[in-house]
């Protein structure tokens, strides 16, 4: 199990390198891609601007704490765009056109290759810079200690958030094995992702419960800032650690079920 | 004229084929609305202000909901088809056929989007009913009529904006990033995310010199009765001016682009 994990980690590192080199071939595309990301970043920062301008406290959080949330959301967007976005967009096409057959013949996990093979590297740079800046400022202005415990806690829930993100957005893709064309769900996925732009405690309790327990999208960006702010209850901390693992097992199980119904579609 | 009406009908048929797609898109529009609703509710509750950025809480809420829907009503997508036509030689058939490419694109756009546009306006009417009943938004019938006029103007202005943008495919190999960046910039500058008054008076003034505000901000201000009749009429004239201006500009760009067209493929 551990060896398999390390093997896939090495392959993923190679995929990052290969994708980065491939993308460098078309440098104008990189510049234009950066433009797109800066545009979306601007929309995300609009919320930060409004919060700064009005000085609003949301659910007891002062604006500087809210920057921590928005910064974490922007940093998580790095993983979303780099790891998932283009794989999500291409997923149903590889099933419709039979490209998936080729993936099945590779000596690595088909799930790994089909859901993670495209890595966007250069386009996410503005998000990295702005995200780190906002998290750094929010961290400092909120008076949170910058020690091993807090940094470790933040990173732990961030890693678990990335795992949750992978599962939450991979599970709906499995519908492609049944419905084939799932392009309509893409806009739904992007909209769901933007739900994390502000702390989940801004929403009414039923939405918070649904988004934390049943469709745990709020675990992705909320738990790492909440953990370092000491705002997570013990129950939430345990749930935040276990839910991603359950979800991952569920995703792998769902994948095995879905793949058993796969019929080669292309030539 | 008949051939363009036929193309319009074809576009409408195509749009109806993917009606579930449209319903999911409208559903997706609900998420940013909920997010903004919660944000503005928190802001108005915290600040206890009667008005922020010139709008009361009910006005802001109505604006956010209607703007998100209006943005959906103005969706495009034909720019990718145009870029493909230019890149892969799809324009060739228009050289030999008695069909104007502009007329073809406009007819297909109207046909494909008319259903979306009207359905979204109906959803907006429901949202408006909610706003007037529960959020105490006052709406005049004259404002609704003027809004419909400005919404139709916005529909054609949006077409012209993206038609002109698509012509860059004559010179650029990869255009998706340009399309997407303009789309997101246009969404913000047209007031599709937040009212332009949020950006401050001076920035709002500079934005008024651009065509974007006539897509969403101006029609919604008309609907909400923020503008006087004179302001609405002059706004409609400016909207028409921008549409015609972009049309003329696109004619010039088309001519120049045609010269560099290689007629590859097909």
Overall description:
The complex is a heterodimer of chains A (267) and B (266). Chain A has 267 residues and is mainly α. Chain A is built from 12 helices and no strands. Chain A has helices at 2-24, 27-54, 63-96, 100-104, 110-116, 125-141, 148-170, 176-179, 184-194, 205-214, 223-228, 234-259. The longest helix of chain A has 34 residues, at 63-96. The radius of gyration of chain A is 19 Å and the shape is globular. Chain B has one domain. Chain B has a two-stranded antiparallel ribbon with strand order 1-2. Chains A and B meet through helix 2 and helix 9 of A and helix 2 and helix 8 of B. Chain B: Keywords: Membrane, Transmembrane, Transmembrane helix. Chain B: This is ABC transporter permease. Chain B: InterPro entries: ABC-2_transporter-like.
Give a nutshell description of this structure:
Chain B: Pfam families: ABC2_membrane_6. Chain A has 12 helices and no strands.
Which key terms come to mind for this protein?
heterodimer, A: 267 residues, mainly alpha, globular, B: 266 residues, two-stranded antiparallel sheet, 74% helix, ABC-2_transporter-like (chain B)
* Average residue pLDDT of chain B: 86
- Helicity range of the residues of chain A? over 70%
The largest sheet of chain A, given as strand count, sense and whether it forms a barrel, is: none
Number of discrete domains of chain A: 1
Count up the helices of chain A. Answer: 12
Shape of chain B: elongated
- Give the class of chain B from helix and strand content and strand pairing: mainly alpha
How many domains of chain B, as an integer?
Answer: 1
Strand order of the largest sheet of chain B: 1-2
Strand content of chain B: under 5%
Low-pLDDT windows of residues of chain A: none
In N-to-C order, the SSE pattern of chain A is HHHHHHHHHHHH
Pfam families (chain B): ABC2_membrane_6
Organism (chain B): Pseudoalteromonas luteoviolacea
Keywords (chain B): Membrane, Transmembrane, Transmembrane helix
Protein name (chain B): ABC transporter permease
């Amino acid at each position: 199990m551990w060896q398999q994990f390390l093997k896939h980690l090495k392959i993923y590192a190679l995929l990052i390198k290969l994708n980065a080199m491939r993308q460098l071939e078309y440098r104008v595309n990189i510049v234009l891609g950066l433009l797109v990301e800066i545009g979306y970043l601007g929309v995300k920062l609009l919320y930060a601007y409004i919060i700064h301008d009005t000085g609003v406290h949301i659910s007891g959080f002062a604006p500087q704490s809210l920057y921590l949330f928005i910064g974490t959301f922007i940093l998580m967007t790095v993983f979303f765009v780099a790891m998932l976005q283009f794989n999500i967009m291409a997923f149903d096409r590889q099933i419709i056109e039979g490209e998936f057959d080729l993936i099945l013949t590779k000596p690595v996990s088909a799930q790994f290759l089909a859901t993670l093979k495209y890595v966007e590297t250069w386009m996410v740079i503005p998000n990295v810079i702005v995200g780190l800046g906002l998290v750094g400022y929010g961290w400092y202005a909120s008076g949170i200690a910058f020690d091993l415990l807090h940094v470790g806690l933040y990173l732990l829930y961030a890693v678990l958030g990335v795992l949750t993100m992978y599962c939450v957005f991979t599970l709906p893709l499995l519908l492609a094995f049944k419905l084939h064309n799932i392009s309509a769900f893409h806009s739904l996925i992007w909209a769901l992702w933007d739900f994390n732009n502000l702390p989940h405690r801004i929403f009414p309790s039923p939405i918070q419960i649904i988004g934390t327990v049943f469709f745990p999208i709020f675990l992705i960006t909320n738990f790492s800032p909440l953990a370092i702010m000491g705002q997570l209850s013990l129950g939430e901390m345990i749930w935040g650690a276990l839910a991603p693992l359950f979800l991952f097992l569920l995703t792998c199980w769902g994948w095995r079920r879905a793949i058993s119904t796969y019929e080669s579609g292309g030539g | 004229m008949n051939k363009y009406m036929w193309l319009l009908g074809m576009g409408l048929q195509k749009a109806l084929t993917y009606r579930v797609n449209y319903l999911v898109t409208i559903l997706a529009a609900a998420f940013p609305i909920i997010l903004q609703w919660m944000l503005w509710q928190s802001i108005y509750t915290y600040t206890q202000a009667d008005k922020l950025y010139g709008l009361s809480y009910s006005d802001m809420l109505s604006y956010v909901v209607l703007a998100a829907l209006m943005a959906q009503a103005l969706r495009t997508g034909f720019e990718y088809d145009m870029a493909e036509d230019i890149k892969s030689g799809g324009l060739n058939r228009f050289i030999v056929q008695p069909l104007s490419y502009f007329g073809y694109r406009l007819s297909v756009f109207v046909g494909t989007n008319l259903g979306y546009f009207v359905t979204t306006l109906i959803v907006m009417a429901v949202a408006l009913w909610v706003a007037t009943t529960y959020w105490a938004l006052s709406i005049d019938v004259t404002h609704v009529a003027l809004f419909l006029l400005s919404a139709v103007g916005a529909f054609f202005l949006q077409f012209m904006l993206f038609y002109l943008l698509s012509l860059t495919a004559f010179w650029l190999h990869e255009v998706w990033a340009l399309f997407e960046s303009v789309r997101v910039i246009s969404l913000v500058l047209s007031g599709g995310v937040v009212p332009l008054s949020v950006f401050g008076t001076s920035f709002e003034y500079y934005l008024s010199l651009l065509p974007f505000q006539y897509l969403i901000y101006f029609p919604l201000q008309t609907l909400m009765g923020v503008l006087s009749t004179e302001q609405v009429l002059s706004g409609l004239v400016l909207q028409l001016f921008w549409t015609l201006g972009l049309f003329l500009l696109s004619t010039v760009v088309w001519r120049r682009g045609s010269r560099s067209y290689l007629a590859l493929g097909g």
